[in-house]
Amino acid sequence: MIQASATPDSLLVLLVGGVTLLAIVLKHLCERLRIPALVGYILIGLGLRLLHDVVPLLSPAVQGAFDLLAALGLVALLFRVGLGSNPRRLLDKLPGASLIWLISVLVSGAVGYYAARWAGFDNVPALVAGVALTATSIGVALPPWQAAGALRSEQGALVLDVAELDDISGVVLMALLLAIIPTLTGGNGVDWMAASTTGASLLASLAAFTAGCYAFAHWVEPPMTRALIRRERSPTRMLIVVAVGSLIAALAGMLGFSLAVGALFAGLVFSKAPRKIRQDRGYRVLYDFLTPFFFIGIGLKLEPEALTGALSAGAILLVAAVLGKLVGTALPARFMAPRSSALVIAMSMVPRAEIAMVIVDQAGRYGPGVVPPALYGAMTVVTLATCAITPSIVQRQLAANPITPPNLTGPDQPPSR
């Protein structure tokens, strides 16, 4: 039998190597099944947690190392979300996409909150669920549109714009939520005045931080990336960019915004960098290694004894997740796109993946009073179900009602970011 306490370093290397190999295998399997790889990653973490109940593998040292890898995976994940966004294009498209985005966020958040309350959760956990359910997943929503050759259409661009706005607003709402949680969980009841003051202070600080990031992106990033392209080769130049992005993420964390917010803003800072920087293969290798550990960490945090209760709550939140986005997106989409495509646009917003679980995971740091084990498990159920089922439904909808992009002259790819 493996003695976890005898050789912690050897055990850690064994587990990291084995988990990395298993993640690669499950990634290919999930691709064949046409489901997101994060489903497999979460199951790896859950399997490791169940195995620990039989063989004590997760010593404090090993658990600490996995927590560190999960934190690095979180930074890599949100950095890439920001890096893949195009703030200028979003601003240009904002008049068309903002109505759908705003109604979608309001409706899905409200439906998620009241569904969580109906499932038996207290006010603060229900608020966490509502904020988490405002987000969607670009990575899950877009592949069916690419496969159908419809991503370059007006409807495809609209899906991309709304999904990006959902992700960015989800992270900003998370920052606001994390700032006011201490005032919402005080022993003397909810102090709405203190919560409002804290929220206003955070928004002011976030505005200042955003201005600083804009100044960096405008005056520092262009000459920096040009110098890197001239003087450094891959992967060194991308490692320097990642190091600078990590400093920005750490600064945001020290200012109280969390690493997730900082990583997103760091990615946005470099989102206008030349393609040689943004699509450097060196970062892809780093991303592919680290990101699975964030989702594996989610599986590790699932408590097996709470899973039974999580299934019933997860079913309620799953219905809320689907209805919130379908109603909140389809209704305004009928006025912004052809009515025949409103439903498929809405269905493309249903998947909840990385951003939703980032919100739950970060709020969970405040303890079980904020994110009870049943809620953590329920949101994981929502993630697994929406990511596994939605892509095939969207694919069938696009096949039944084909959307032809105008002047398509090459392979259908996401717009240049």
TrEMBL record:
Highest taxon listed in the record's lineage: Bacteria
Primary localization: membrane
InterPro entries, per database record: Cation/H_exchanger_TM, Na+/solute_symporter_sf
Span of domain Cation/H+ exchanger transmembrane: 21-396
Membrane topology of the entry: Multi-pass membrane protein
A molecular function GO annotation: antiporter activity
CC terms in the record's Gene Ontology section: membrane
Transmembrane segments: 6-26, 33-52, 64-83, 95-116, 168-190, 202-220, 240-270, 282-300, 306-328, 340-360, 375-394
UniProt KW keywords: Antiport, Ion transport, Membrane, Sodium, Sodium transport, Transmembrane, Transmembrane helix, Transport
GO terms of biological process kind: proton transmembrane transport; sodium ion transport
UniProt subcellular location: Membrane
PANTHER family from the UniProt entry: NAPA-TYPE SODIUM/HYDROGEN ANTIPORTER, SODIUM ION_PROTON EXCHANGER (EUROFUNG)
Protein's UniProt name: Cation:proton antiporter
Organism in which the protein naturally occurs: Spiribacter aquaticus
